[in-house]
Amino acid sequence: MPNHKTVITLYVLIILGFVFCSTGFAKDNKEFIPGKDSGFYYTIKKGDTLWDLSEKFYNSQWDWPGLWEMNDDIKNPHWIYPGKKIKIFLKEKPALKPKYVKVKKIKKTKVPIKIKTTFSYSQIDHTGFIKKTAQPSLGYIIKEEENNLIMSTNDIIYIKLSGKRKLIPGSIYQIFSTENINQKINNQTFEGVKHLIKAKIKILEHKKTYVTALITKNYHAVLEGDMIMEYHKRDPILTVEDNPDPINATVICAEDNSLMINDNEIAFISIGKDKVKPGEIYTILRKNKFKDGTRWPKVKKEDSVELENLESGKLIVLHTEDIASTVMVLSLKYVIHPDDLVN
Residue 89 in contact with residue 39, Cβ under 8 Å? Predict the structure, then answer.
């Protein structure tokens, strides 16, 4: 007849088997790597949002882009439906602990571990940036193999070298274009060069006066005359700082030059790496101006009313350069516009 300890052990094993089978953990319990298929399935309930699920499973609302990326069948992150199963990826330490685990009291005092909140953005390698001067070009596109005017993934292109450096066969480079920025910001002129990263290429052959390359991935339409730069790998995992020192910056423009900037879109702000760093989160403010109309008497200068600016949303810094930084709008109450304030 089995003794008391044996019965308890069997009971625990049965419970463990039931829990892991019911939660649907993936077969490979690997360490968290963005883009890898490891984790468990969760069924959406009424009222759930990716923002709330990120807070629930990872103790951080800022991890929702990584959650969205893992579930590429979700076309719009704002619309998820009850009954749908989504993949919850695993981190080094699961956010939730099974309720049946009992932790014994330890008399020794341990130093508390500070858990760092992280933000995952897999597309960070090809986000644009603004610098004071243009990035040196290693060459420019003279044509596509089949004379297509607009080039994209899997097209073979011909590149005329600039003479600054050779392009190494088998190596990865990026295609980019530039645009001069010259605009008034808070009664001051901001000048810089916006760089738009259009595609990633692999060099095929080095000829006498040109090289051939394959477009392995394009993010924007590639055109003749677009330039070549070296490829620099950026870290897609940012350590979040949601309470940095206040700054006095302004939204310069959107990456795609849109006059209205929505959430999840890329933009640039008028402050560089000497003041901010990647992972810092700031508030976007709309200027709350009082316009004198026909229904109101003229307001004298000494009697003018100064209204408090309206909080429009939040943004996170993705990349910094000398005079400007690349940011992503995380959330908003109102549509963001160029010349909005950042604090």
Answer: yes
